[in-house]
Amino acid sequence: MKRFRRHGHELHRERIKQDLFQFNKTVEHGFPHQPSALAFSSSLQLMAIGSRSGAFKIYGAPEVEIMGLHEENAAVTQIHFLPEQGQLVTLLDDNSLHLWKLKKSPDGLSILKEESRFDLRGQPGAPPSVTTITVVLPQSPGDVLFLGTEGGCVFVVEQPSFREQEEKAISQEAVLQKVPDDYRNRRSLGSVEALQENPRNPHQIVIGYSRGLIVLWDLQANQATHHFLGDLQLESVTWQRDGRQIISSHSGGSYCQWPVSNDDRLPQPLENKVPYGPFPCKAIPKILWLTTKQRTPFVIFKGGMPRASYGDRHCISVLHGSKQTAFDFTSRVIDFFVVDEAESESDCNEPRALLVLAEEELVAIDLKTPSWPVIQSPYLIPLHCSAITCSHHVSNIPIKLWERIIAAGNKQTTHYSIKPWPIDGGYSTAPEPPQRDLLLTGHEDGTVRFWDASGVCLKPLYKLSTVSVFVTDADHNDNLNQSGEDEWPPLRKVGSFDPYSDDPRLGIQKIHLCKYSSHLTVAGTAGQVLVLELNDEAADQEVACTLVDILQDQDTFKWKGHERLNPREEPVHFPAGFQPFVLVQCQPPAVVTSLALHSEWKLVTFGTSHGFGLYDYQQKRTVVVRCTLHPSDQLALEGPLSRVKSIKKSLRHSFRRIRGSRVSGRKRAVPGNNAAKVQEANARMDREALNEMELAPVQRRIEARSADDSFTGFVRSLYFADSFIKDGSYHGPSLWAGTNGGTIFAYTIHIPPVERRMEDPVTADQAKEIQLMHRAPVVGIFILDGRGILLPEPLEAAHDLSKSPDMHGNHMLLVISEEQFKIFTLPKVSTKTKLKITALEGSRVRKVSAASFSSSRVEDYSENGLLVLTNLGDIQVISLPVLRTQVRYECIRKEDVSGIASCVFTKSGQGFYLISPSEFERFSVSSKWVVEPRCIIDIEEGVGTRTLQQRVVQDGAVTKANTRDAVHSHVPGLSRSEGDGRKAVEVMEHALLNDERVLLEIQSTLESESAVTDRLSLGHLDRNSKNVAGVQPQMQRMINGD
Amino acid sequence: MIKTHQRTPSRSLESVEVKSKFGAEFRRFSLDRSKPGKFEEFYGLLQHVHRIPNIDVLVGYADIHGDLLPINNDDNYLKAVKTANPLLRVFLQRKEDADYSAFGTDTLTRKKNVLSNVLRPDNRKKPPIAISLPRDFRPVSSIIDVDVLPETHRRVRLYKHGSDKPLGFYIRDGSSVRVTPHGLEKVPGIFISRLVQGGLAESTGLLAVNDEVLEVNGIEVSGKSLDQVTDMMIANSHNLIITVKPANQRNNVRISRTSGSSGQSTDSSTSHATFMASPHVMQNFHSEEVDSDEETDMVIEGSDEPQHIPVAPSASASIVSLTKSDNDHGLTPNGSVASSEGSMHTLAADTKMDPVEKEDVIRRSMEEDGTVITL
């Protein structure tokens, strides 16, 4: 009977757990890693971006995002929207074509589904180049695809069956029939470089061959009608909208206009221009010719810069009458398109905005406003414009602070165009976010960026720079970049991606924001700690600098790392926003490893690898400094850079090798080509070296941790609490610090009464020192009140935002080390409960954060717990105060070290981690709070039977019909029924990590390193390759699953 | 609490004959073999029969090998009664003039001497190894669970307590062949790749290079990565129990009925040569024990001179704390002694240790055993 009841209880508990916890990866924030293709549908007002990982995503209006993922792990090289069908065709690096359809999921949201795959096959025995696709043209009625190939042939394939229509294929022989003999004999035609449909006549297409010949092909007569005998290497061809002219661009940086008329079947070029001549120029791979009502066309092209002096620039030039600007991007331009407001019958394009996809960002340029300003994009933000070094999440921001941050941010974005975002397809049905959440990212260049992380779109709010506090070399460079008005070429820098940091010491390492007091503290790589407050007005002020000697006169130690940053002596002008008023400089200037702020007590505490300090920022006085160094820890003194460098170097090395082998893989083998042979041999040697590495055993030392391991003094966690430290009847302010060697220091702090706060000093005395016998790094310290609830944040109770804590004694100290969770009694420290992780599972705690989980079914029911991320990439929820694992989900691959390191949790059970340098994956462990795109794209019904007239009528008309549409991969209802939420979600990350070879190479390089350093722990090759292989079936399930 | 795997020959004899000697006096009485009672009762009985109610005595008995072994807790009392065959010979000494060195674990060859030592206290000869009182005993590395494991496997407990030796071994990835329902299959496994000279692993002689690691503290390692297993081992390093499949299967433990009841000390410096041939030390490992001898964290309250506190606690403080820890964690020493019966090793191995060293040992034991110091 008893057993039965207990069983019932467990069932009940399981049900509660289902209401509380559910794991979903919901959306990627940021910019896709390694984009490789771009497409735009003017009728649907949707943009698609494909990436090297085989994923592609559709973007429309803000919050409209739909993702598709190819099963093949090959780069998406081209994407084409099939006219008005809600269908897309993608071309992958492996020469396969894929048909995708926007469909409706059971709950009415739009999703992308792959319908079929097609491989173009040539005659048996023909060289592969014959069928290597170079261009794809979907004919506007939408039932035929033209495929231009490297062999110079144009194949015709029926849609959606992908049936080849061999009788319609356009061979080189057919094209050459009417070409004058002298031209024909000179050369072969080369590969097909351009296929474009006459915008006024869908039965006429232009075919451009790489050796220069351009022909007009009549699809009905199945013959060439016009021949344009170009003799320049051809890059691209475009039509003028009225169909009376075609424009070709060439490898020498020139473009030609060719008249199209029925009289002249062998026309000569109207004009041949080299816009950046007369010296040799780079190729123009793509050109657009856009007409306006004012008759002056817009000519927009990529490249074409003078080879010698500007050949390394990534430019898009816009020519409009006498106006010419070369937009200069900091990364390679992938592709671009123009959003126009053309009416379908009109002969004018009326370009509205130019959208350029560069390798690291998407930039929209407003062509309507005369100064051609940039339009701020609502999504695809380059998070990594400077490398992200840390992140910090603050939930539930008070409206007042929110508005002030936005106001400060608005003053920074005045140079943006006031025009709305030009792409507005689809609409979002995602509910309004229940609260305002801030994500703060610290960057290598010393900036902190504030993002609105409440919803599907991560919106930039405000950017804080700490650089101006310090004297840097960068100050003098500004003048050099300023270009005069009549500079040639007329370069204009656009975009914000700037990977070059002036000084790595400026990097932000830790951030702590108090949302109630608007006090912010940030700490950096060179031991600098800044305390800032929000000011709505700009101000000139001097920043008080205090040096803190962490070593405490232990002169046996000598710091070999970098110098500290020099603060400016004179007052500095700070714009409205967060303005620093205190600078604490740790000496030695080691990277700040831990940071906490108590705005009520006006105290800030910071830790480095040498010790920690407590600073009173009201009186601007150091309260206490404690050196945690162990005498035998020599490594701590070398500074972080020496070690990091070796890892970075090995990474760089492996990437270089990967790049090399990738190129060799990509190049199509040319028989008898020596270079290709050499490359092949190199690749083979690489492979052999890799095999050898696999054979060499990796071994791990088994040794108990001892007090004199290196980095034991490294301060890992700092915590302020009002609790019972000395006796059970009196509680007061305390500071807790945990080190890498498993030591916890507790200090009681004496804060003078308010009226004497400015005069009497704040003092702190050590009250306790706890040495965890397992000596594992202390990653978290919390104090639970008498009811087993975590103490609130400073000022939280004062603002009536949380229940005031139970201050009747019985407080408990919760210490989280990498290996176990332990609750001690207070004030006498003795173990109460513990939960071992490492001893039982072999995983180690990497990140821990307190979170509250609300029930999705029962109002007002919630539980507190700890969100834990382990070094295996698992997410666990551990209940409080009874330490028990509630749920466990696989979240990040254990090989993804940077992903695990970047993870940050929210208070409501969500989290973010970097899946690439430029993208945060958002996930949710809560079944109540899930932020995910829920969007609908409506597509006109009656597909496939349309004529030209119909098309004209429908163009641009997006109506809301009950058709087959689609949205994001994830359907909450479905996974809820699956209970444990383990449902695989189709995410870009899988694809990113799916490149087996890349992974193996990185790991093997790291491994040889880690065998020595033993710090970067990655698994063994054998296992990894198995894991990698394991991803594939999972992905398949995901795709078929919905 | 502790189950000895060796079944005593099930004699039909219901009572045990006891011959107890104190000074020159002998007393004879009998005990119920099936219900021998507690040690306290036995001790009371001895005091009663010898009429020495107020004299503290040390109780020893001669085991079947002729070793003089102490009786001072329920477990070794039970053991003594169980192995008495048929006579249990008990020797009492006054605590004041007790000769600890008399307790020995040597073989039959020294039996006469040992006994004569006891019988004639004036004729003292120090044996090389002395055993101190059981509260100073600590468990050492040993083979355990021989009765539950297949003969091809070996479960080894590496006890680091109080020893300066590093664990001293390395593990690697590898593959092993398993018999599965689908026939023979090659599966990835974890192997011992290197033993450090002079390390605990090497000196016990219980582990060897290329032994396959199957479990760590009762948790299977199959499916876990090398790093996971590494972390598990390090996390359990204070009491590491590894189940291996030895590469050399010729030295496997075979359960033999004739093996010694008292067992032999695993004195690591001498034993490893003989161990592979006939390991005698066997224990049973119960998973619930893992936590019982768990290490405790050290807490220092207050701070007058924080820099010095962790390094040099005064000797008196540590002695106070030792007794205190006995009170606070009464279960811990008992548990560990109980679990390691038959393979004890004295902490204060050398009574002639100089005071500095001794203090060092005490301090270390304080750290390891979990001491609460109040300054």
From TrEMBL, chain A:
Pfam families the record matches: LLGL (PF08366), WD40 (PF00400)
Subcellular location, record wording: Cytoplasm
Originating species: Scyliorhinus torazame
Gene3D superfamilies, alphabetized: YVTN repeat-like/Quinoprotein amine dehydrogenase
Sequence similarity: Belongs to the WD repeat L(2)GL family.
Origin organism lineage: Eukaryota, Metazoa, Chordata, Craniata, Vertebrata
GO molecular function, one term: GTPase activator activity
Protein name per UniProt: LLGL scribble cell polarity complex component 2
Alphabetical list of PANTHER family matching this protein: LETHAL 2 GIANT LARVAE PROTEIN, LLGL SCRIBBLE CELL POLARITY COMPLEX COMPONENT 2
Keywords: Cell cycle, Cell division, Cytoplasm, Exocytosis, Phosphoprotein, Repeat, WD repeat
Function: Part of a complex with GPSM2/LGN, PRKCI/aPKC and PARD6B/Par-6, which may ensure the correct organization and orientation of bipolar spindles for normal cell division. This complex plays roles in the initial phase of the establishment of epithelial cell polarity.
Xref: InterPro entries: Lethal2_giant, LLGL2, WD40/YVTN_repeat-like_dom_sf, WD40_repeat_dom_sf, WD40_rpt
Recorded GO CC terms: cortical actin cytoskeleton; plasma membrane
The protein's assembly and partners: Interacts with GPSM2/LGN, PRKCI/aPKC and PARD6B/Par-6. The complex is enhanced during mitosis. Interacts with DCAF1.
Ranges occupied by WD repeats: 69-103, 434-452
Tree of life domain: Eukaryota
Domain Lethal giant larvae homologue: 273-373
UniProt-listed GO biological process terms: cell division; cortical actin cytoskeleton organization; establishment of spindle orientation; exocytosis; Golgi to plasma membrane transport; regulation of establishment or maintenance of cell polarity; regulation of Notch signaling pathway
TrEMBL record, chain B:
Domain PDZ: start-end pairs: 155-248
Keyword hit for Cell cycle: yes
Alphabetic keyword roster: Cell cycle, Cell division, Cell junction, Cell membrane, Cytoplasm, Membrane, Tight junction
CDD domains attached to this UniProt entry: PB1_Par6, PDZ_Par6-like
InterPro entries: PAR6_homolog, PB1-like, PB1_dom, PB1_Par6, PDZ, PDZ_sf
SUPFAM superfamilies membership: CAD & PB1 domains, PDZ domain-like
Family named by the database record: Belongs to the PAR6 family.
Name under which the protein is recorded: PDZ domain-containing protein
